[in-house]
Amino acid sequence: MNSRDILIWLNSLNINSNTIEKLEEYFGSFYSLWEASTDVINNINFISEYFKSVLVKYKDIHYYEDYINRVQKSRAKIITIFDDDYPKHLKSIYNPPKVIYIKGSLESKDEVSIAIVGARKATAYGKWAAEKFAKELASLGITIVSGLAYGIDTKAHEGALIAEGRTIAVLGNGIDLIYPKTNKALFEKIQNNGAIITEYPLGVQPLPYNFPMRNRIISGLSLGVLVVEASKKSGSLITAQMALEQGREVFAIPGNINSVYSKGTNLLIKDGAKLVMDINDIIEEITLLKNRIKTKRIKEVSHLNLGKDEIKIVECIKEYPKHCDEISFQTGLGIKEVNSILTILELKGIVRQLPGKTFQLTDF
């Protein structure tokens, strides 16, 4: 048993990440814990008698091998904090999960992601907004992260899939269980277009106290969190608070001041969350998103059927906006010709004019 194996073994006993860290500090290494006698384990003063008995009872190589076989039979993959493919953003948060279980795949492009969360008992307006924002963001290559719950979460995942984008669902239970059961088809679709993730071992039920811990992973995987609808006591506000603590951006969609489902989002805006009316309000706040969209836009433009001089101008302004005189100088084209081509490119929707005869590529 190496340190990685022992870490997975501890997680399989449903020992949380904080306690695992304390155990490592107490023993000096995971190997020392594995080799510890029953008396030594029973003298640990910061875990319950129940967990002491569990450590003693299941400190067995056959138990561990059987558990790994069960994980493999469930078609899940285990990633630990020791592994190179552990998600970079998640690793940087306070108390990251030491072990995560995955169905589907995580890709490097998932680092550019936005979480969309909100009420389970969502209104028609909330469901519409969640699907609309998820669809539009996913169409730009941004991964959508949510929690697979009823209401807003479901619509966020569905919106990403409609746009043929990627989405990640973070569970508050073991990866061998589907909750809610009505989302079975969605559970399967997400695996083919993203990932299902949980830190909970096999068999753990979706108990209420699991979800606040789950929420830190939703925000931890993301560059920002968009709250669509939430009551004053919604778990989505916990996700927003965790996002702030993790240094993430928090966005909220305003709602009817008389609606109980908008009190939480309106309060977030009052307390400083950015009010969002379209996806540009999100994109302009996050540099990585802006860079992703710029790169995507440049690739799109490069595939258009443009003339030689049009390509010169597009190449000239692809990095940042430029004045028409600067464009003329750098391309070697006369100012009249530049202005004529810029007008044509504006009509094609490829460039837009800013104040002061400055031009840039359109975002999308």
Strand content: 5-15%
CATH topology-level fold name of the largest domain: Rossmann fold
Total of helices: 18
Low-confidence stretches: none
Helical residues, percent: 40-55%
Q: Kindly, what is the distance between the CA atoms of the first and last residues, rounded to a whole number of angstroms? A: 52 Å
- Inertia-based shape: elongated
Question: Looking at the chains present, what oligomeric state does this protein adopt?
Answer: single chain
Family: Belongs to the DprA/Smf family.
Organism: Caloranaerobacter azorensis DSM 13643
Pfam families: DNA_processg_A (PF02481), WHD_DprA (PF17782)
Protein name: DNA processing protein
Please tell me about this protein's structure:
- By secondary structure, the protein is an alpha/beta fold.
- Helix content is 48%, strand content 13%.
- A 9-stranded mixed beta sheet has the order 1-2-6-5-4-3-7-8-9, with helices on both faces. A 3-stranded antiparallel beta sheet has the order 10-12-11.
- 40% of the residues are buried.
- This is DNA processing protein.
- Residues 306-357 form the DprA winged helix domain.
- Belongs to the DprA/Smf family.
- Residues 77-286 form the Smf/DprA SLOG domain.
